[in-house]
Amino acid sequence: MASFSTRPPGSSAVYHRIQHRGTTDGEHDMGIELDEPSILAAIGWNIYNRRGELAMSQTDLAGIAGINRSFLNGLENGKRNPSVLTLIRLAAALETTAADLITLTDKPKRTK
Question: Is residue 60 one of the residues assigned to a domain?
Fold first, then answer.
């Protein structure tokens, strides 16, 4: 029986889909790091960037989302791991979707 999976042994199906999204030649590396610090940094950058677009302070966003401002600071700096509920609350406060907040970018950079 032929195997249709080309993902590395022990990797998840999610890893496989992310690695192959948008590729047609089966190339595994899209330039997106999937380690926890890189993922948290991307989420933090997305929150920070959207908050900046809305000219919102950390204090304002934290209050609307019902979270502690220092926790929000940790999220934006990629030091804290948000729950799904927190992501949904932040997305609502930022007038966006949780999917937008967890979108992985090639190399997140802050624009101050």
Answer: yes
